[in-house]
Amino acid sequence: MCTRLALMCLYFRHVRNAVVLYADRTYLSPEAPVSGKIRNLTNFRAGTQHNLEIQIVDNQEIIVRVANSEDKKFSTIITDEMESSAKARGTGIAKRSPEYIEMKIDEGKAVIALTKGGDWVGFCYIETWSHGEYVANSGLIVSPNYRKSGVAKKIKQTIFNLSRKLYPQAKIFGLTTGLAVMKINSELGYEPVTYSELTQDEQFWAGCKSCVNYEILMSKERKNCMCTAMLYDPKDHYEPEETKAFFEENQSSLERLLRFKQWKFLKPFRRKEKNGGGGSSLKVFFNSLFH
Q1: Are 141 and 122 in contact (CB under 8 A)?
Q2: What angle do CA 54, 59, 62 make, to 5 degrees?
Q3: How many alpha carbons fall within 13 Å on the CB side of residue 169?
Q4: pLDDT tens track for 254-278
Q5: Chain-centre distance of CA 2, in angstroms?
């Protein structure tokens, strides 16, 4: 083992990024030059290769990789941040327990971002629906200190690539209320779709019950809600350059659409709260607007 490790280290000392391997972890040697914002590394473990990404944020190295059992200690931090972030935005995501996050880590269906010192930065996981026909990259969350730094984009890219590797024939979809996530998705080849093109698996939609907008979703018979649906179909899709160009050309229109949905969909709830109850106006509102 030591001889093999020594040979591996000797080899990698001669590559351009000066990667040095110890046991099952990968480190950058002090003399390694920073080449651009992101560097690809390879971690060798039990004869297999795992791609890592190093993101430079404020002169700090952020490691983005597939989560392992040692990362389960962050499960409560992750779920707490998911909940607080949803409350701050005034929108909702399906609540997940720390045990659920740990299960996804054990299954090898999660990606985590950490500082070189081991502090948690971000997270995302894979869910499968309709017997593997559909895959969702869910629960994307980044620590407030690292938002708008490019980490979310790198996590999305990594979880997308992992999904394509594990489920090459599956349709990958997502629901989001954020323009930033829509932009990232478009750069990966996702395109906006109607809810009817998503999985109709009852378990998926049941996960929305903990969302603050669930009443809106059910009032529309799962045909519309605050979220925008996006889909990547490996058998029928535009190239990422095309979907990225579409987003850039229509970004202002998509932003107006998100604001419109917030205003129209939430207006009945504001009226109901102001009047002190009475839910019949919500049904009348949706019938008049969409039927």
Answers
A1: yes
A2: 30
A3: 4
A4: 777 777 666 566 555 455 545 555 4
A5: 39
* pTM of this structure: 0.68
Task: Report how far residue 185's alpha carbon sits from residue 183's, in angstroms, rounded to the nearest whole number.
Answer: 5
List, in order of start, the domains of the chain with CATH numbers.
Answer: 1-48 (no CATH), 67-290 (3.40.630.30)
Q: Which residue has the tokens 């489920």?
A: 167
Give phi and psi for 121, each to the nearest 5. -120, -45
Report the distance separating Cα 201 and Cα 170, nearest Å: 14
Structure tokens at 182: 């829509």
- Residue 109 CB-half CA count within 13 A: 19
Please tell me the distance from the alpha carbon of residue 150 to that of residue 162, in angstroms, as a whole number.
19
DSSP state of 75: H
Three-state DSSP class for residue 138: strand
SS3 125: strand
Rounded distance, CA 130 to CA 201, Å? 6
DSSP character at residue 227: S
pLDDT 10s digits, 39-74: 444 332 333 334 566 666 666 789 999 999 999 999
Integer angstrom CA distances of residue 183 from 172, 175, 246: 16, 13, 10
Nearest to 125 by CA among 81, 169, 66, 183: 66
